[in-house]
Design goal:
It is built from six helices and ten strands. With 253 residues, it is an alpha+beta fold.
């Protein structure tokens, strides 16, 4: 079945975290101060409170990934005083309590350096990241994407139907499928993973949306009970560096 598997190939950037109490202001990281223009308005949530700086991706640090920026700073913010981490389950594109911002390097001639105003939100009990960390990057080729709606919607070929042809080995083969083709962890691009289900499934608005960023629970990162968070974007918006219609999702067991 290699020809069918090969046709599902997607490229991604796998992210590995390293704890760091004082990441560089420009570094790709989670749970630490962002690289912002001095005159930029720092994001506030629907209650007017400062948002938590969830993650920053400095694309200049990454191996190249087709369709994604080659430079610039992509930043994710969420409400730190919201028990659902800033997600509106009825409108997961509403950026009232989360925000995705992007800045080109040339846009930041003088960066913000004072973040004392974030003291309360950085120590808030409801934030998912309690240990600041930096990222290491590695290019990765992915196949099939078990759990991603693109695999489930593939009516022509489904690996689970292939597995059913071997009932005497079905359990072992299913385990092997998840071990080989279920892409958890932190990442940019490629196939998404979920604790529950893919929010793009059966929703024509999001049929073409691709994975922008994924952040999974680990030591110092909590999404409910061993959960995972995803941010998706339409490729056309990504090409325009328009992050105003990003789809945000997190779920847990």
């Amino acid at each position: 079945h290699w020809p069918e598997i090969r046709n599902t190939r997607l490229s991604s950037i796998a992210l590995t975290t390293i704890p760091s109490d004082e990441p560089g202001i420009k570094q790709s990281k989670i749970g630490h101060y962002p690289y912002l223009p001095l005159d930029a308005e720092y994001p506030r949530d629907a209650e007017g409170k400062w948002m938590f700086p969830l993650a920053q991706i400095n694309f200049a640090e990454l191996p190249g990934l087709h369709g994604y920026p080659g430079s610039g700073y992509l930043q994710f913010y969420i409400s730190g005083f919201d028990d659902v981490y800033g997600l509106d389950f009825d409108d997961p594109q509403s950026q009232e309590n989360f925000r995705v911002l992007f800045f080109e390097e040339r846009d930041i001639t003088t960066p913000k350096t004072e973040f004392d105003f974030l003291q309360e939100v950085m120590s808030a009990e409801g934030v998912p990241v309690t240990q600041s960390k930096i990222f290491k990057f590695a290019h990765r080729e992915e196949y099939v994407g078990v759990g991603d709606f693109r695999h489930d919607d593939n009516q022509d070929w489904d690996l689970f139907r292939v597995v059913e042809q071997y009932p005497e080995m079905e359990k072992q083969l299913q385990d092997a499928l998840y071990d080989s083709f279920y892409y958890t962890g932190h990442k940019i691009g490629g196939y998404a993973a979920f604790s529950q289900h893919d929010p793009r499934m059966n929703d024509p608005r999001f049929a073409e949306y691709i994975l922008l960023f994924q952040l999974e629970a680990e030591e110092g990162i909590t999404w409910g009970d061993s959960g995972i968070a995803n941010f998706f974007i339409h490729p056309d918006d990504l090409a325009k560096k328009d992050f105003s219609k990003v789809l945000y999702n997190w779920d847990c067991f």
